[in-house]
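User: quick one, sequence for these tokens?
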């Protein structure tokens, strides 16, 4: 089965009985030393890794209240109220990021939860508060009260090697403290998620067994350091698991702790993957890279002198061979942190420094105007086209003031705030997809990001 068409199942939840409420107790102690009676032959590197990290790995139990109408035939729209509520419980994994009680897991593990309980390796149960989430990277940060929690050693994902041994730890199917091993199979994987409606980039691929309930647990190298956060598996596949590189996760976690949200550094250049076929068609000497298809006016890229048609081949000395790798290298940058870019223009190679910034608050609406030629307003909980700029794709298509934008990139919008959010979420997409209503009909229209 081709990677692009395979169905991605997030290693997410399994049904279980609600756990009894418990009172916070003392923080967990470090694992005892390996008994002296264990021979050196049995003290393999994997044994040592598992022994040292297990006190840091937690089971995350969530509860969510689901309301169902009592009679969908008699009252299909819930006009008369009533209905029944039930509590849904689920399990996932996580690990202690820092000794002050910061827990890291996946966003989809805690999404929609009304109560979160963290179960430690030594049997403790502590209630957790959700500090922040980033759906785009599928990360969530929790806090439990207490001190001196045993944190997992954090490594780096910048020097990973294909074929090196990795260890995954989690709680698959509620079986706490499960350890599996394998090798690092690939780097920089782009994985589409049908359930989440987005494509995740820069995943680590491993054949270490990752099953339902493993999501949010650590992926470690043979030195026992966290190199990734387990995320997902493919349905109908064996030996294919994925993890978020820890270097990418680190910035997200730091932003969530500091701001409560991710502050993405913005350069203002929209790119596409340059393939050898496309390079030959355009007559480029460079065969691989991130081809700039649009530079937003007034952006850091514009001020630095980049323009459409330039081919980015390296960021801070790291090779770029695709749009995804360019996105990966820039996603960990901090605002106002200058970075060197290497790029090709008309067959010659140049370097320049660009200083990313926080994206403008209205970036999404600016994109809509510059890419599609549309200005919109709020009207009765709807996004209504107010102006269609002349000599734009929207004008060529025949859009008119009064038409209603009901969805952007397949997500429903009811206000210009919604529209701005969805457009910013898709700022690195190759196109904007609008669902526009006129009268009784809804039309799906595509606006390429390129000039």
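Assistant:
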């Amino acid at each position: 089965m081709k990677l692009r068409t395979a169905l991605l199942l997030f290693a997410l939840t399994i049904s279980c009985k609600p756990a009894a409420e418990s009172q916070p107790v003392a923080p967990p102690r470090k694992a005892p030393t390996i008994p002296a009676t264990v021979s050196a032959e049995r003290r393999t590197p994997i044994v040592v890794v598992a022994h040292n990290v297990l006190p840091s790995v937690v089971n995350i139990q969530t509860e969510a209240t689901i309301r169902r109408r009592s009679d969908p035939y008699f009252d299909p729209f819930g006009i008369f109220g009533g209905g029944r509520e039930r509590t849904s419980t689920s399990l996932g994994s996580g690990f202690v990021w820092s000794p002050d009680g910061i827990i890291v897991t996946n966003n989809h593990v805690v999404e929609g939860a009304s109560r979160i309980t963290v179960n430690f390796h030594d049997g403790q149960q502590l209630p957790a508060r959700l500090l922040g989430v980033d759906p785009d990277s599928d990360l969530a940060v929790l806090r439990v009260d207490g001190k001196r929690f045993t944190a997992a050693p954090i490594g780096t994902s910048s020097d990973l090697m294909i074929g090196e041994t990795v260890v995954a730890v989690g709680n698959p199917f509620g079986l706490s403290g499960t350890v599996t091993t394998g090798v690092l199979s690939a780097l920089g994987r782009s994985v589409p998620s049908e359930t989440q409606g987005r494509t995740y980039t820069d995943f680590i691929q491993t054949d270490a067994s990752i099953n339902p309930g493993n999501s949010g647990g650590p992926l470690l190298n043979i030195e026992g350091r966290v190199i990734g956060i387990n995320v997902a598996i493919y349905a109908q596949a064996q030996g294919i698991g994925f993890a978020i590189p820890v270097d990418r996760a680190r910035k997200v976690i730091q932003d969530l702790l500091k701001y409560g949200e991710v502050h993405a550094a913005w350069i203002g250049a929209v790119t596409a993957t340059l393939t050898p076929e496309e390079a030959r068609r355009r007559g480029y000497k460079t065969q691989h890279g991130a081809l700039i298809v649009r530079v937003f006016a007034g952006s850091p890229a514009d001020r630095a002198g980049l323009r459409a048609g330039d081919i980015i081949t390296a960021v801070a000395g790291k090779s770029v061979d695709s749009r995804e790798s360019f996105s990966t290298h820039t996603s960990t940058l901090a605002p106002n942190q200058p970075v060197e870019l290497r790029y090709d223009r008309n067959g010659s190679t140049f370097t320049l420094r660009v200083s990313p910034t926080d994206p403008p608050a209205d970036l999404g609406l600016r994109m809509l105007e510059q890419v599609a030629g549309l200005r919109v307003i709020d009207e009765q909980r709807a996004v209504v086209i107010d102006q269609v700029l002349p000599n734009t794709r929207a004008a060529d298509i025949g859009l008119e003031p009064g038409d209603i934008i009901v969805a952007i990139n397949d997500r429903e919008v009811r206000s210009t705030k919604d529209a701005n959010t969805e457009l910013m979420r898709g700022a690195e997409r190759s196109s904007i997809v609008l669902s526009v209503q006129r009268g009784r009909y809804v039309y799906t229209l595509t606006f390429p990001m390129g000039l």
